[in-house]
Specification:
single chain, mainly alpha
Length: about 80
């Protein structure tokens, strides 16, 4: 999962799980952007409706992942409460 920095076998399960959650969050945000681009590109209202629904599902997935990350990474959670 880490690509070239570390060997997965030596990482703790907690680290591997957080890494999977963070990578999945990145992918959800990418999908949100792609759906938004397609919504703005098409003139077909039926397709816009479907794509908007799909985009919003991705937003829900991102929220679920962020909750997981906040629950399992206390430093990250604290940054949501206390930041510059």
């Amino acid at each position: 999962m880490c690509e070239e920095h570390h060997v997965d076998e030596i990482l703790s399960e907690e680290t591997r799980n957080l890494e999977m959650a963070r990578q999945s969050l990145i992918e959800e945000f990418q999908a949100i952007n792609w759906y938004q681009e397609r919504i703005e590109y098409t003139n077909d209202e039926e397709l816009k409706h479907i794509l908007s629904h799909n985009r919003d599902e991705e937003k829900e997935h991102a929220a679920m992942l962020m909750e997981y990350i906040r629950k399992h990474d206390k430093v990250q959670d604290d940054k949501f409460l206390h930041h510059d």
